[in-house]
Predict the 3D structure of the following.
Amino acid sequence: MSMNRILALSLLTACGPKGPAPTGAAVAAPDTLPRVVTVEEEALGGLVRVDVRCPNASLEPVCKDGAFAAIREIQRIGGIADTWNNTDGDVARINAAAGGEPVAVGDDVLRMITAGQTVAAASQGAFDITVGALSGLWDVPGADLPDRATIQERLQFVDWTQVKVTGDQVNLEGDGMGIVLGAVVKGDAADRALAHIPQDYDVKIDVGTDYVVRGEWDVEVPLPGATPRVATFKVRDTALVTSGTWVASSTPGEGFYKQVVDARTGEKAEGAAVSVVAHPRGIIADALSTTLRVTGPTTSAVEVLGGWGVSFDDAGEAVEVGRRGA
């Protein structure tokens, strides 16, 4: 699989003004010029944005309808994966039946679990959808740091190899286990949303820094380090997912990147401050970007699964992962 879809990466500290428009050429009528139609709405705990390159003004209603349909699909997928509000959904039923009989699930949950298991196998457990047992131990304001005994107690419920999928049946073999799909749902939602945009229109779908694009677009990623910088990726016909959530402090310009927990140890991961992964499927790129946060560039999972990635440390230095070529 070629990663020539990723055309360029540049690190920018500032962007100068654009030059004047060329003169002496014929100018198209405003209503026949391509324009970008943008729709934004709340979904999956944040702002979702859909940009569509609309061929001309007369087609703007079609472009807007497609963008709104894409967002409805993102909201639908998010609701299916949610266990907080969707207490009777497939994920909640799987978790409730842990250690017992398999549960029949719909195509959406089955797709997300299967993708998660694919990345778990490729990463040897650095990515794990059963990591929910460790939630609440880290990055909780005012909470004490967990001791090793608490971590070990939770770790017995984290084991991707005990998630069994047979046809449309899912079983968690360990009593007390539970899955979470937060590390695949945004990528999956962006994948599914793309089908709602007319096939011959370019589109960029941004689901909380999970990007799926048709056509060629720029994607900007803020980087850590003493000097604020932005990595600009020129992307064509693929997914590009960033992991590394910046949490601002009360002091302007200060903050930190939210931690990721290593499912293998229960400790805070030390792999990368920010990771960026490109893959034809957003759902796989999503899981791999989390994997890179855990492992840094040492993992082979990105290359094994046909992706390309880059891992940034706390100083904003980059190490490429995987291959750009054939």
